[in-house]
Design a protein that fits this description.
By secondary structure, the protein is of the alpha/beta class. The chain contains nine helices and 13 strands. The structure holds NADP nicotinamide-adenine-dinucleotide phosphate.
Length: 331
């Protein structure tokens, strides 16, 4: 691929805040000029963008862990790219990660970029998976917040997704009994047959609650990616001192009025806890986590699946796949 800076770039920007799900006029794509780099900037060709459920939150004008994307602003997105101009530390041809956004080319300060070099057995794309934000979420969520111990029963919702599938594998590496919850039969099969977890339940199948009660009974740690009715059911399944790791609540992201929980009184009876976290809380410990993840990749203990689509202007449509369970792996 050419390392020449073109005159123009396509970008997709936020045009209107949706009330519930993303709509046709939520985002607009346009062609504009590539900005000339300033003294502390480089031009980066955006090669691959990460699509994340959190993006639905970033376009909501509410108080959160990061400011909302503004109307007219290029949609924020973690991405991998190739540097096209020499900077002070980065050189033409370097592969970098950063919040490059939904754009073909980005002119950005070097300090917001990190050069990536894939460790043995890994690829640069793994910096959008186990070696990047998603991997850090899985690692710190299950180990630092969930504090799992060998032999404990760990249940993971959204288990076949990007975060969930890594959580399942880390929990297995640490000697837990791992139960996955996912929305399709093929996802459940992949979890058991390829990732080697102990059991998986398809929440779209009739009678899964009764089978779960009979076959699993109670849990020590629930790593929750989805919230809503699955969280409510798991509240009835807590062992003494159980911990719920509230990583995300994707089932409610498109809803203007999330439903309330019914079964939270078990938290008192079981002396259980429920704790939310944001991956950026653990940045100081990222190097240790990346080293562990890289080692597990090299040892063949961490499998990754990527779901790759093409066409920048189609990002709004692809993003919605996450809310319909249409992705197979990290989107
Ligand atoms: N706290 C943090 O710092 C942090 C960081 C990163 C991600 N997260 C959260 O982690 C979760 C997973 O993110 P990801 O990037 O790994 O996405 P992902 O799991 O790869 O994709 C999202 C999955 O969510 C499931 N889902 C969608 N709607 C659902 C519903 N109504 N009920 C149940 N499941 C539903 C779908 O799988 P099924 O087919 O199984 O339904 C879908 O494939 C999200 O909640 C995200 O916000 C949190």
């Amino acid at each position: 691929m050419s390392l020449i800076v073109p005159a123009k770039t396509k970008r997709v920007y936020l045009s209107k805040r949706p009330i519930e799900g993303i709509e046709k006029d939520t985002f607009v794509s346009e062609t504009t000029y590539v900005k000339q780099p300033g003294p502390d900037e480089v031009v980066v060709r955006v090669d691959i963008v990460s699509l994340d459920p959190a993006m639905r939150g970033w376009i909501r004008d509410v108080r959160s862990y990061t400011p909302p994307v503004k109307i007219g602003e290029t949609m924020r997105a973690g991405a991998l790219g190739t540097v096209l101009t020499n900077g002070k530390t980065l050189k033409k041809g370097d592969i970098v990660q950063g919040y490059l956004g939904w754009t073909e080319y980005s002119t950005i300060k070097e300090k917001f970029l990190e050069k990536v070099v894939a460790p043995p057995g890994a690829n640069p794309v793994d910096f959008l998976g186990p070696l990047g934000m998603i991997g850090m979420t899985a690692y710190f969520g299950i180990l630092y917040v969930g504090k799992i111990k060998p032999g404990q029963t760990v249940v993971v919702s959204g288990a076949a997704g990007a975060t969930g599938s890594l959580v399942c594998q880390i929990a297995k590496i640490k000697g837990a009994k791992v139960i996955g919850i996912a929305g399709a039969e093929d996802k459940c099969r992949w979890l058991v047959e390829d990732l080697g977890i102990d059991k998986a339940y398809n929440y779209n199948e009739q009678g899964w609650h009764s089978r779960f009660k009979r076959e699993v009974g109670y849990l020590d740690v629930f790593f929750d990616n989805v919230g809503g009715s699955i969280l409510d059911f798991m509240l009835t399944r807590l062992n003494l001192n159980a911990r719920i790791v509230l990583c995300g609540t994707i089932s409610e992201y498109n809803s203007s009025k999330p439903r309330g929980l019914q079964n939270y009184q078990t938290l008192t009876a079981m002396r259980a806890s429920i704790q939310g976290f944001i991956v950026f809380d653990f940045t100081n410990d990222y190097p240790k986590a990346v080293a562990d993840m890289a080692q597990w990749i090299q040892e063949g203990k961490l499998k990754r699946k990527y779901h790759i689509e093409s066409g920048l202007e189609n990002c709004p449509r692809y993003l919605q796949m996450l809310f319909r369970g249409e992705n197979r792996g990290k989107l």
